[in-house]
Structures are given as structure tokens and as C-alpha cells.
Amino acid sequence: MDIDVLRTFLEVNRTRHFGKAASHLFVTTSTISARIKLLEDELGLDLFDRKRGEIGLTQAGTQLLSQAETIVNLWDKARQAVAYSQPEQQVLFVGSLNSLWSLFVGDWLIKIKSKKPDLIFRGEALSAEEQIHRLLARTLDVGVMFEPTQVKDLVTCELAPTELILVSSAPGQELSQALGPKYVLVDWGAGFINEHQRSFGDIEPPRLRLAMGAWALEWLNKQGGAAYLPKAFVQRSVRPLFPVSDAPVFRQPSYVVYNEKGANLALIESLLDLLI
What we know:
single chain; alpha/beta; Arc Repressor Mutant, subunit A; D-Maltodextrin-Binding Protein, domain 2; six-stranded mixed sheet; five-stranded mixed sheet; 13 strands; 46% helix
């Protein structure tokens, strides 16, 4: 089995488009089609439904999905380990939500490299679901996410909560003005969204909703508006941003998660003090 065939299957599932998958994998659309056909022929089953221009997984494709992810991740980790196979070198695989890289993981990496300059570090942007799946498969050492998990074998440690404040590019705005047409809703996790709904359930749905705080900061710098951001983001803003004085402050918890049966347990525990 060619590992690139499984990568192609995963990318077609992610993009739900043969052309986009081809672009992301730097091959032609005909190559994507040929790889999928090869995989389907080898399994003797259709993996995708192709109806009216839409692509979706069949039942067989859904069954293959998690197995394909595990195989590809294991292969990537094995290849990395072999590349750095000297006894004195260690490799740490860390997954994080995009927004949490900016809040915690980037600074943690600086501290890690200061303490262990020879450590091989591999960081990836992954959803919470992908992190949990890979932690259980032991192809990821550490995950950083907004919600705690109670999955067997996974240890969850709470990080210091992040204070999210409502800021605006316009000085002196009141809450009702900041939550107007130029308000940007940032998805800081399910907890934040629930608190936001309880506090502002009567406002019109925001016209702009972004998954990453860094995107919102860039938008405010270029277009102006208002958004809930951490103080650290506000301090590095190119454009002055002003707190909305009558707005509530939300405290967003975050968590680091690792597998207590993982091969790098001692290394992880020695580095957690730099983060927690």
C-alpha cells in the first residue's frame, strides 16, 4: 500500500473536491482520481458517493477514515523518529488549536528550546477531535485545547485562564455601539460562545465570525471594528484598540492533554512546569 494513496483519500475527504485535493497535494486531478480508484479497487468497495457534483463518504469510506488517519500519522511519526534516531535526541509531537498557539504554545516552545536546545519539536494545528484521536493512537505527545476531556488514559491539566476583553478601534464606544454592524465574533471555544450567547443573546447575529483571534486582530488593524481579544493580542496591535468600559470580561480556560501511557511521558512531565 502506497502511503500517498491514503493521504489522497484523507485530503479528498477533507476538501470534498478532487481539484482542491490535487492543488493541496501538488499533483494533477487525474492523479487524484487514479489513486482513489486504486484504493477502491484494492478494497473492492466504493469509498465516495459522487452525486450532483457533491462528494461524500460511503459507509465503507467512513469505516476507513479513522484507520487511514492512524496509519498516516504512525508513518509520519516513524519517519521522523528514524530521521532523528541518535540515542541522545528526543522528538516531541505537539498539536494545538490555532488560537492557542498564539496564546500559549509559541511562548512554551521558546522556553522548551531554552531548556532543551537539542530537542526535536514538531508542532501542528489540529482540531480538538484530531488531537484526541492522535493522543489515543500515541502519534501525538501533547494536545492543547479549549475543552477538557474525560477519555480513558488521557491526562488533562488546566492552564491559567485567558481574560478576553471587548476592544474597539473607536475610542469611547459604549457596549451597544461596539456590538453593532462592525462587531467581529471570535470563536474562542464552546465555553466562550455559550457565555457570549447568555450575555448578548438579543443582539443581531454578527456579520463576521472568525475562528482565530489572530485573524480578528488583523481585521481590526486593517478595517476597524470591535472584538473580544486577550490583552496580549491588544498590546501587540499595530492600530490602537480601546477597551469598551461597560462590557463584561470573559475568562476562557484552556487545557493541555497527554496520554499517561505515552512513550514520552517523562519528557512531557518535565516540560509541563514551563507551561502551567
